[in-house]
Amino acid sequence: MAKDQMVMYEEEFNQIQLVVDKLVKDANAKVVFIVDKNGQLIAAAGDVDNLDTTSLASLTAGNIAATGGMAKLLREEEFATQFHEGSKQNVHIQLVGNRVILVVIFDSRSSLGLVRLRVKKASEELNKIFESLLKKVQEPGADTPFGEITDEDIDNLFND
Amino acid sequence: MSFINYMAREINCKIVYYGPGLCGKTTNLQYIYERTNPSAKGKLISLATETERTLFFDFLPLSLGEIRGFKARFQLYTVPGQVFYDASRKLILKGVDGVVYVADSQIERAEANIESLENLKTNLNEQGYSLEKLPFVIQYNKRDLPNVADVAELRELLNPTGVPEFEAVARTGVGVFETLKAVAKLVLTELKKGGG
Ligand SMILES: Nc1nc2c(ncn2[C@@H]2O[C@H](COP(=O)(O)OP(=O)(O)OP(=O)(O)O)[C@@H](O)[C@H]2O)c(=O)[nH]1
Ligand SMILES: [Mg+2]
What confidence tens digit (pLDDT) does each residue in B47-65 have? Predict the structure, then answer.
């Protein structure tokens, strides 16, 4: 398996979901989601039904990539935190372990101070989970379910 | 870098459309978007200038169906082709699983094509990838125009190693899905090899 292959297993997913669910409550947030640096949504919680999380995920990753590029030019390390203030909603974006991005959307029922505090705690927990996930992925024997796909399977995808 | 999600039973792959300014990368995505069943696509997001040149990227998520019980999802991105957006192009290439190089077939764009392909190689190498090892296809676009180079000439300039190549008129959709399918197939085949 490729060294930097991103994989999500049920066990770690459940742990991540717990952190995210808790963060929504503790931070009085509307929505919390986690995206990997390539823009793939990993987990979400809160009022997500009316939200285009796929698009948000890709734009968040683009945003982090762009600020990361700026940081490099300025010889800074990553800008790990971003805050966008809107008229009704605010967005807090935190880079966790330089690998995933934690996004919190909140309104006047919460405050930046509270969100910051809770994000800090959640980041530490997420960091641990992703570290152990990474180890698991790199273990020899960690297999993809795709070793056994046939050319026919692939062709069938395109037959409609 | 594909993302295998055992929980959602999804496999996510990133495909990047690369090529010189105005070669038709965005037009490819627009056509795919128009012709794809609503249940199989997300929004087409275009971060563009006021004159509709790509500024950062276009993004289109697609579901191609199931493979071994996993949903095969592809995230299509275009880069901005204009030379001075190089920093953005590098960012978009991060985590790429497959590349479509869109060439502008017009004779006067020969140099721009070569330059952009070289730029692709340089930017991939910088990130530790190499084009030879990536799933990679070439599209010769704008075949409808009168002033186009012969495919044989384009092949000699841009495709000496003989990767899959397609003639296209992205504006009307000719060759667009053929190109996409070819690269998607290579990406999935690569995943299969990568197992174990
Ligand atoms: N005649 C013709 N025009 C095309 C074709 N494909 C694209 N175009 C036109 O070429 C112009 C540029 O197309 P885009 O898709 O925006 O080009 P792009 O590669 O995304 O350009 P950048 O975003 O600047 O990198 C548009 O006016 C398209 O309609 C084609 O096959 N034939
Ligand atoms: Mg474009």
Answer: 999 889 999 999 999 998 8
Whole-number Å distance between alpha carbons of B32 and B175: 11
Output the six-digit token pair for B110.
């020969």
Helix (H) or strand (E) holding B119: helix B110-126
Q: Is the pTM of this model over 0.90?
A: yes
B154-182 per-position pLDDT tens digit: 999 999 999 999 999 999 999 999 999 99
Identify the H or E element spanning A47.
none
Any A CB within 8 A of B143 CB: no
Query: CB–CB of A157 and B189 under 8 A?
Result: no
Residue A157 has its nearest CB partner, among B2, B64, B87, at B64
Structure tokens at A17: 């979901």
CATH of the domain at B51: 3.40.50.300
User: What is the number of structural domains in chain B?
Assistant: 1
- Please report where in the chains the tokens 């939200």 appear, as a residue: A51
The enclosing H or E element of B148 equals none
- Helix then strand count (H, E) for chain B reads 5, 8
In short, whether B47's Cβ falls inside 6 Å of ligand 1 is no
Residues whose CB is less than 8 angstroms from the CB of residue B15 and which lie 6 or more positions away in sequence, other chains included: B74, B75, B76, B77, B96, B97, B98, B99, B100, B180, B183, B184, B187
Task: Give the distance (Å) from ligand 1 centre to CA of residue B171.
Answer: 7
What architecture is the A2-157 domain classified under in CATH? 2-Layer Sandwich (3.30)
The DSSP bridge partners found for residue A103 are A33, A93
Q: Which helix (DSSP H) or strand (DSSP E) does residue B19 occupy?
A: none
* Domain extent for B86: 3-195
Query: Residue B149 carries which DSSP code?
Result: P
